[in-house]
């Protein structure tokens, strides 16, 4: 089948599948767990607002840090305006999150932990495996903005127990306006769509 500009539509899906495969190889995931977005900002919004909206009947508390990217902080502020509760953890003098404070901040109604993998301003690398282990211990989904990390440090979504991960193409010399979102399938993480339509692209 060909489109109006005589471009084989089957070729589009083939190329997209190849790109998903490359991303999944970099982060040790399945290609089926990769969703393309317009960038890390969209991926962060889908992850934070989408997850909390989906689980809002049982979970109304988010944990993040004071040093997150603005789009993460803005998403959390938006949730607060809707009545959700957000804990903004301070970081230690070295820029790292205090793991004990993270542990004690988790509540029965905590629905998401969101901590940036590599800080976009000071470059600190958070202890992802430890954060993921704490989140897993309390059965809380773990989201990370890895836009600054992809292609620069090893990423293993299984070892790090990551449920949702935001990625950006232009941070690794690709074009702006292209990003991706890792969404774990086992155990499955669910999000409420932030836009309507587009179901025909689920292939």
From TrEMBL:
The keyword Iron applies. It holds the Pfam family Aminotran_5. The keyword rRNA-binding does not apply. InterPro entries: Aminotrans_V_dom, PyrdxlP-dep_Trfase, PyrdxlP-dep_Trfase_major. Its cofactor is pyridoxal 5'-phosphate. Signal peptide: none annotated. Keywords: Iron, Iron-sulfur, Metal-binding, Pyridoxal phosphate. Residues 19-199 form the Aminotransferase class V domain. One of its GO terms (molecular function) is transferase activity, transferring sulphur-containing groups. Belongs to the class-V pyridoxal-phosphate-dependent aminotransferase family. NifS/IscS subfamily. This is Cysteine desulfurase. It comes from Abeliophyllum distichum.
């Amino acid at each position: 089948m060909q489109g109006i500009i005589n471009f084989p539509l089957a070729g589009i899906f083939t190329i997209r599948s190849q790109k998903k495969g490359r991303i999944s190889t970099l982060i040790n995931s399945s290609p089926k767990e990769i969703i393309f977005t317009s960038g890390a900002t969209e991926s962060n919004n889908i992850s934070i607002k989408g997850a909390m909206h989906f689980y809002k009947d049982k979970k109304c508390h988010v944990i993040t840090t004071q040093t997150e990217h603005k789009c993460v902080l803005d998403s959390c502020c938006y949730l607060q305006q809707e009545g959700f509760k957000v804990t903004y953890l301070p970081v230690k003098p070295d820029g790292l999150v205090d793991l004990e404070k993270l542990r004690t901040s988790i509540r029965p109604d905590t629905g998401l932990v969101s901590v940036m993998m590599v800080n976009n301003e000071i470059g600190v690398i958070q202890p992802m495996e430890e954060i993921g282990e704490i989140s897993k211990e309390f059965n809380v989904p773990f989201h990370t903005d890895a836009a600054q990390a992809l292609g620069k440090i090893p990423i293993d979504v299984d070892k790090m127990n990551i449920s949702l991960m935001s990625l950006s193409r232009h941070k690794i010399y690709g074009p702006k306006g292209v990003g991706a979102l890792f969404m774990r399938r086992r155990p499955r993480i669910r999000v409420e769509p932030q836009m309507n339509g587009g179901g025909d692209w689920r292939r």
